[in-house]
Design a protein that fits this description.
homodimer, alpha/beta, Peroxisomal Thiolase, Chain A, domain 1, nine-stranded mixed sheet, two-stranded antiparallel ribbon, 11 strands, globular
Chain lengths: 388, 388
């Protein structure tokens, strides 16, 4: 298997992008990444697109061909593949693109993610999230996406004595980071008290525990490492890639307060990279709800089981602290466009490892991790990125 | 890159399967393939699922995790990936699974496809097809899926002088084959005159020129060839795999009467296999409309441009003739469940190459081709299978 590097990145601002269609969002992110990398169109061997729900939201499937077409890539007839895995669609597209290069099927691959969540009613947009859960056993019978995560939170918090303040500290910290990210949907700070006092959605989760449903796009250019220096002085190597599944429906699980697929995927990625959690300089974690950031940090092994809340409250996950988590603002502040999220996470880690993260730069960042999951973590994808 | 073989196959009957849900269809096909292969659950390294439109039709995305869950594969936390590429979703899932094994990421992979097209109104089901075209420039402004293919047919037929009888001969021949396939949705013969006199859908295409919108599932078990003999005496090797894209919208193309992506994908597959069209003993072709079988046969190089209609009318594509095409009955008679179709094609070729095709067995079949495309062939996938 060959080594694979990221040689270009692009991301759109996340938000309610009512003046842009899905194809425009995909095009904007893709062209930014191509421009950043210095490759030419004819260098591209394949395209992988992460997208969750364009069929349900904008009556458009086959978005890989759509974006290939609008990026002018069909002149070369290159293969274009859409990957869907709910909110892990982006991370999983990254992994499939990685496999295409590592396996020797392509030298240069564009991996893009795009999602349009706000061209439907708020109710439909919320229901779209539920399509990543088990329709027959969960969403159809009224279990909303927040209510499923509320059950996870109840189980976890009861077991570990996690406090309301610890949950709120996650959102406060991510907004503090996101305030320094011009691409963020909500680039402003919020106080923990505001989180704790925001409208109740599903006990114990409140409105400011929840990430938004965003429009947005992101893209990275993957290149066989042996050729990366042709295009950039700062290639970032993908040294570990892991993926795992769990039951789709929550009631099939032994422990509702765990997300085991993340644990398995992280172990696989660490093993491949020859790294341990203590080797990480920073990580982007899939905080679709505050509770999931805490559980994920423990599944990855960054903190021991039950300790992530207290560590967050102590400020250990802030920039310039022990292990900066979600320097981009995370899903909570940067926004969450399912197909794009996992790739936007990669964009942030690459910016940090290149030393191009501006006000939110983590000093001497050499090794970062990305954790992206779909549904209630029925699919989890973990990547480790390093400075070469 | 390692050689990859198919060691197990499974397929459901296609049709209006109102008594079965998507997960049941996926489970039925997957377990049949696992049983056929003799592998155990713990042998499976990864799952790839082809599915076009479950979000739009049954409010369920994330179907890879769904099917992994219901097949009992989440105990092992194996990676599960959904691939979507309109009607090419199945063929493209096969290709991605092939790449996972060939690239050394997995030894044994289950590739499944499942689709539920009939749990919605007929109008919605028809519109779902259109989601594989360009929503903004085609379906939204009233270009139905048959009308796009009617434009292709008009262009092709005018250029080559193709007759109504030649189109009808495609459907008659595929039903003649499908009548011998117990898994077919319409396992009975139809006369060419009945095709020519069926209701007009969009000039020149009539009702019996069109494949149905079906429910159905299919699965194959892929194995690194070096291990295939552990499980079967009759492994079938994938010797060529090709994929290509074209513009999503028809009006972007130079020639509406061609499907260039098929040509590019076929050339790539032939090159890898070291074969030529004349080496083929049979092929499964994506006849979602009668016209596409004719165009595809020429893009692949089985017949010269403009000659496929006359050759079909002469009977050259019947079983026991020169080059049997769609011995399964094709999309027209076996049925067309988008996510499953490309994999059902592989199941048929494997049956033929194993000599297990019963009444429709092609004598001395050693080398077969599969052509599967999405939309108006904005995505095309071609595989070549051979007896080892």
């Amino acid at each position: 298997m060959r080594d694979v590097s990221i040689i270009g990145i692009g991301v759109t601002k996340f938000g309610e992008l009512w003046d842009k269609s899905l194809r425009q969002i995909g095009l904007e992110a893709g062209l930014a990444a191509i421009q950043d990398s210095g490759i030419k169109r004819d260098d591209i061997d394949a395209l992988y697109i992460g997208n969750m729900a364009s069929g349900a939201t904008i009556q458009q499937e086959h978005v890989s061909a759509l974006i290939a077409d609008y990026c002018g890539l069909t002149n070369n007839n290159i293969p274009a593949v859409r990957i869907e895995s709910a909110s892990a669609s982006g991370g999983l597209a990254l992994r499939q693109g990685y496999m295409a290069v590592a396996g020797g099927f392509a030298d240069i691959v564009v991996v893009g993610g795009a999602e349009k969540m706000t061209d439907v009613s708020d109710a439909k947009s919320a229901y779209t999230n539920s399509m990543g859960s088990d329709e027959q056993w969960e969403s159809q019978v009224g279990a909303t996406f927040p209510s499923l995560h509320a059950m996870m939170a109840q189980t976890y918090m009861k077991k570990h004595g996690t406090s309301r303040e610890e949950l709120s500290a996650v959102a406060e910290k991510n907004h503090m980071h996101g305030a320094m990210n011009p691409d963020a949907q909500f680039p402003f700070p919020i106080r923990a008290e505001a989180v704790s006092n925001s409208s109740l959605v599903s006990t114990p989760l409140r409105m400011l525990d929840c990430a938004p449903n965003s429009d947005g796009g992101a893209a990275v250019i993957l290149c066989a490492s042996e050729r990366a220096k042709e295009f950039t002085d700062k290639p970032i190597k993908i040294t570990g890639s892991g993926q795992a599944s769990d039951t789709l429906s929550l009631h099939h699980r032994e422990d509702l307060g765990r997300m085991k697929a993340i644990n398995v995927a992280a172990k696989e990625a660490f093993k491949q990279a020859g790294k341990k959690p203590k080797d990480l300089d920073l990580a982007e974690i899939h905080d679709n709800f505050t509770i999931t950031e805490l559980i994920a940090l423990e599944e990855i092994g960054i903190f021991k089981e039950g300790e992530a809340g207290a560590k967050t409250l102590e400020g250990m996950t802030k920039i310039s602290s022990e292990i900066p988590i979600n320097t981009s603002g995370g899903l909570k502040s940067r926004g969450h466009a399912p197909g794009a999220t996992g790739i936007a996470q990669a964009v942030e880690i690459v910016r940090q490892l290149r030393g191009e993260a501006g006000d939110r730069q983590v000093k001497n960042a050499k090794c970062g991790l990305i954790e992206n999951h779909g549904g209630t973590a029925a699919t989890a994808v973990v990547h480790i990125l390093e400075v070469e």
